[in-house]
Specification:
The chain is of the alpha+beta class. It folds into two domains: 79 residues, no CATH class; 35 residues. Helices cover 37% and strands 10% of the residues. The chain has three helices and three strands. Strands 1-2-3 form a three-stranded antiparallel beta sheet. Strand 1 and strand 2 form a beta hairpin.
């Protein structure tokens, strides 16, 4: 759930964005209180917005120049239009090693199934 906050009290050259992930309640139909929420940090960031640079768009709180929003032409204030996502490259084992581990697991499973079948046949025969 992303929220966009703007200061409507007078003219501003920048728009403040904050990526709220939880509002103190679960997002299911029960809306139970949750322990973690972004609202205290949102309030703290808002209170210090004039003293803080807030130009790192990978963070939860950041500002965007109004001119940039105008230049896009549609005045879309969706946070994902301006927030930058940092993609971390994952390191994986070579496919042959993964396949070998899978085959080892499959052999173990087959061995267990054979033992189970033998036990069931012995029980059924008696």
């Amino acid at each position: 759930m992303a929220k966009t906050l703007m200061s409507w009290l007078g003219r501003t050259d920048q728009v403040f964005f904050y990526d709220v992930q939880t509002d103190d309640f679960s997002l299911d139909d029960k809306r139970q209180p949750v322990e973690t929420n972004n609202l205290p940090d949102l309030v703290a960031q808002w209170k210090t917005r004039r003293q803080t640079k807030l130009d790192d768009r990978t963070q939860k709180a950041f500002r965007v120049d109004v001119q940039e929003i105008r230049d896009k032409g549609n005045y879309d204030l969706s946070i994902n239009r301006y927030k930058k996502t940092v993609h971390q490259e994952e390191q994986y084992d070579p496919p042959t090693e993964i396949l070998e581990r899978m085959m080892d697991l499959e052999r173990d499973i087959m061995q267990d199934l054979k033992e189970l079948k033998t036990l069931l046949e012995k029980e059924h025969a008696s």
